[in-house]
Design a protein that fits this description.
The chain is an alpha+beta fold. Helices cover 38% and strands 29% of the residues. The chain contains three helices and five strands; from the N terminus they run αβαββββα. A five-stranded mixed β-barrel has the order 1-2-3-5-4. The radius of gyration is 23 Å and the shape is extended.
């Protein structure tokens, strides 16, 4: 056997082993995510709130309680998360939001939100449906539109 075939076989074996390891790690992470979702659903409650402000802010700058910062991993503390300031009853609270529903949340309007702790998982409008925002156009779609205008 030539050295080229030996090197290619070794690379192939390493790639196969890496794929198998990633498969089992993915299965384990999927089970962990399902358990966490069950816990979120178990403590979820529907609350009527007035949205004051929303933004993507660093976790340490969002005025969360210290226990929240201590429980997050160190590599995620500097990442930006969707944060919503809302008036719940007489109290103004800072809540974290799910990334999929963040664009749906209207500012300065009243909504019914499903909340698990400080995490907003779902939003519905009190007076009618919520307006869905327009999808952003990609780079090539904008170029195509410019070319069609000219």
């Amino acid at each position: 056997m030539s050295t080229l075939t030996i090197v290619l076989l070794v690379i192939l074996v390493v790639l196969i082993i890496a794929c198998v390891v990633l498969y089992f790690l993915g299965k384990k992470a999927e089970k962990r995510q399902a358990e966490q979702q069950e816990q979120l659903d178990a403590v979820a409650q529907t609350i009527s709130m007035l949205i004051i402000d929303k933004g993507k802010i660093r976790l340490k700058d969002a005025d969360f309680p210290p226990i929240v910062l201590e429980s997050t991993p160190k590599y995620l503390r500097r990442s930006k998360v969707p944060v919503v300031k809302a008036k719940v009853g007489p109290k103004i609270m800072t809540l974290m939001c799910d990334a999929e529903i963040y664009p749906l949340i209207p500012v300065k309007k009243e909504v019914k939100a499903t909340v698990s702790g400080i995490y907003i998982t779902a939003v519905r409008g009190i007076r009618g449906p919520l307006a869905t925002p327009e999808k952003k156009k990609g780079f090539f779609a904008r170029l195509r539109d410019k070319a069609q205008k000219n």
